[in-house]
Amino acid sequence: MAPKKSVSEGPRKRLKSKAQREETPSIDKSFRSSDHSVRFLKEISHRTEVFGKIVDFHYFDNHHIHLKELFEAQGWVNFLSLRQTQYTTLVKHFYTHFKYQYNKITSYVNGKSISLSHSDLASVLQVPCSGTIQRYTTNSWMQFEGYNPLESIRQMCGNPSIEVPVRPKISELTLESRLIHHIITHNILPRSGSYEYISYLDAFIIWCILNKVKLDLAFYVGWHMDTCVKKKNGALPYGLHITTILNHFKVNVSGEKETRNAIPTDFYGETTMKQMKYEFNNNTWVKKDAHVVEEMDEEAQMAEADAQGNEEARQEDQEPPTAPSSSSRVNEDNFQLMFGRLDSLATSFENFSSMVTQTFSTYNENFASLAQSMEEINERLRNHGM
């Protein structure tokens, strides 16, 4: 009986070992396909991520700047005051798989498929969805009933004598409007590089916020994501809020080493006011009389802060030592475009080392996995006397 039992078990063992040899190797869940892996390395991995700012509404209320009332009317207070960790690698994986069609976002991160309709995105970000404006243009004045570009410029500059509807410089804005523009460039339509440029869309959004005309933030988030990811070397926005999306879809973030938490310059508050050269005297904010030498000293301080890792500090909106006149607006736009491209080029060089390190790290992991698989195969062969 014993030999028969041995004979009957023999084929079973051999069949089992064959099945084991045919098992599919473990698959890296970082990317949905090899094409996405290639896209990540060639198009996404080197890009700058925009973390976003955290608005300290309590600070501004205590110093007689009532931003909270304006953003409560939009329903954006929670969106602008959110504090949480950013997972820098996962943000880039999110944009590697990102698609935006028919107001719907789809992506893929760590084995989880992400699909967000317009209403879903609004719900996840906890912002209003219905009864709001959806307008997006950057090359001309916005066309909207009740919106008068000249009147809006007079309002945001606090100057009723302005006669020509020309986009103002940030130095011409009222303190309230200037802070709103800060928030637009870092949180609502995040960007990198120079923050002093006021686009047509920026001007329209400032007007809407000042006059409590409700905007559809979820629409702007989806459209701006799509615009940025399609732009060559464009900065990747909403890093802070992509964490909210990942948490909603229960993406596994444990073990992620590349993270970013808020640093002092990420908060809108006293530091922001000092960088804008305002001081609080006799219960009112007063603009300091800044000389060119003082501005250069502050720029040097910003460069030092950047060397210490506070990459956003050097990008705070400071008045340039020289500014073009209103008669040379086209040249100003060209210079802004040039500075933006130079900033992207600098960012590419800064991130090149990181990209190379990450690439070789991936190769090392793949070789280690291959070596382990070969060792397992050899072990199975030895077990069967081969």
TrEMBL record:
Q: Which domain of life is it from?
A: Eukaryota
Organism listed in the record: Fagus sylvatica (Beechnut)
The record's annotation in Pfam families points to: Transposase_32
Compositional bias (Basic and acidic residues) at which positions? 1-12, 19-30
Q: Where is this region: Disordered?
A: 1-30, 297-331
Please identify the protein, giving its name as recorded: Putative plant transposon protein domain-containing protein
**Entries under InterPro entries matching the protein:** Transposase_32_dom
Q: Where is the Putative plant transposon protein domain?
A: 74-251
